[in-house]
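Support request from a user on the community tier.

User writes: "When I paste my structure tokens into the form, the page sometimes reloads and wipes my input. The last time it worked, I copied everything first. Here is what I submitted, just in case something in the input itself triggers the reload:"
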């Protein structure tokens, strides 16, 4: 419910694997102490509220396996404390926002199994702590050179990439 925004000192919200449907409340952005938000494997639909970018204490944001649509809000680039971002297995569309390159503490980025298009933003080169990126099963058509990152896992299968996209320096 929208009243979730009244819980100013809420630290952890773990809603995984339920039958919750409807939109995510924008009021979650009012939860200034929210550090862990897990709402995977539900039936949340609609867009990811841009107000979630105001929950600046977030370290874990996992919304995988829902019915979320629309673009990833650029405002999420303000979540500089974020360690893990997982929006996999939804129906998100549009381009990956450049602002995600501001997530300097991010270790894992999972945007696989969506309908994301366009170029992977060059700003992802700023994610120096990131060791795992999964962008598989989208409609992405070009990659920047991410060789400056110390990735242990990088998945881009099932996109619209060419061999030259995968090896830009050769």
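"...and here is what came back when it finally went through:"
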């Amino acid at each position: 419910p929208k009243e979730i925004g009244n819980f100013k000192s809420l630290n952890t919200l773990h809603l995984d694997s339920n039958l919750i449907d409807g939109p995510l409340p924008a009021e979650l952005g009012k939860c200034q102490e929210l550090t862990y938000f897990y709402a995977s494997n539900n039936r949340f639909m609609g867009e990811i509220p841009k107000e979630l970018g105001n929950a600046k204490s977030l370290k874990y944001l996992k919304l995988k396996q829902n019915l979320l649509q629309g673009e990833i809000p650029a405002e999420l680039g303000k979540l500089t404390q974020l360690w893990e971002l997982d929006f996999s297995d939804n129906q998100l569309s549009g381009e990956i926002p450049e602002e995600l390159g501001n997530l300097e503490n991010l270790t894992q980025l999972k945007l696989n199994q969506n309908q994301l298009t366009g170029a992977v933003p060059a700003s992802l080169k700023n994610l120096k702590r990131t060791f795992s990126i999964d962008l598989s099963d989208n409609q992405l058509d070009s990659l920047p050179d991410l060789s400056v990152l110390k990735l242990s896992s990088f998945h881009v299968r099932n996109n619209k990439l060419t061999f030259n996209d995968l090896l830009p320096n050769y």
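Agent notes: The reload is a front-end session timeout and is unrelated to the input. The mean pLDDT is 95. The chain is about 0% helix and 25% strand. Escalated to web team.
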